[in-house]
Amino acid sequence: MKILESRTAPNPRRVRIFVAEKGLDIPYQQLDFMKELKTEAFKKLNHFQRVPVLVLDDGTAISETVAICRYLEETHPEPALFGVGALGRATVEMWNRRMELGLLMHVAQAFRHTHPAMATLEVPQVKEWGEANKPRALEMLAYMNEELAGRAFIAGEAYSIADVTALVAVDFMKPARIERPSAFQNVERWYGEVSSRPSAKA
Fold it and tell me: How much is the mean pLDDT over the chain?
């Protein structure tokens, strides 16, 4: 088993943090983001030519970040990072989707459409679209700040994949050139806690 990734990309980092929280020892193979992902060999593993990809011992390839994490959750259920019980799992799923679609997606679009380094990959690169996504990310942060007033983590009182997604999104705001408002005190409290976990350095 191994994980194919490009270390600077946000989605591979989500998997690395998840793996670290599980305490698993899985080897990583680094691929050149600008070159190796565009090869026919890699396309056979993931038609969409994106990382991460989990390659099992029999050669089976699993792509998409949450799909990889779900496989690892099923094969190594402790600690539970997708929630416990029907309601717990549904709540984590709900909040992880919110963090993906309401935060990480907007941050990623801002980065992909405004950062000069992405000009050759994001064709056409539409600067106006990138800029339009920045306030949407801040709107989600404001919502998170309200919700985190009443609980420790994104989806409840236990750390979950929703926190992984949110942490990676917040950290990715820096290269996307979106300033995190210091007035969001509940977000700052949460961020201080999740970013200080050993897994955050994975």
Answer: 96
